[in-house]
Design brief:
166 residues, 10 helices, mainly alpha, ARM-type_fold, Adenylosuccinate lyase
Length: 166
Amino acid sequence: MDIRKELLKEHSKAQINKICKYISNDQECFDELMTIFFTAETRLVQRASWAVSTIAEEHPYLIKPYIKRMVKNLKKNAHDSVKRNSLRIFQFMEIPVSLQGELLDICFDYLITPKVPVAIKAFAMTVAYNLSAKEEDLMKELKIILQDQLPFSSPAFKSRAHKILK
């Protein structure tokens, strides 16, 4: 299968599932998908990020070699789908200690930036919570950010924030 062509063919859950089934747990095929994920072609990257997220949930070991690069990628002007799907992956993963501070800063920035879409904020909130759970000072900082954002937030943000603030 030509993964690039299949990603361009159609933007649907069925197409993503077809690609994910083909790649399954094959590291070489997944590496090809990740090469596409890190390209500059916006439409292709959007679609690849959906497949990457789906595969990483089932086979998290495939994504481990790419965690550092994905964190760096979040600092760029990545498309919202890339941010959303990357954070979706990170919420279920053990993040290397060397990247935790950088990723936490990114999540905090997403949480305080008004124009960041709610789905990205929700995943950023979960990742920030996971990274802060063992550090009382970081947890306090997260809770302050969430409390400051509550009056201006969507119902989805408020729902997730209240779970963390309990």
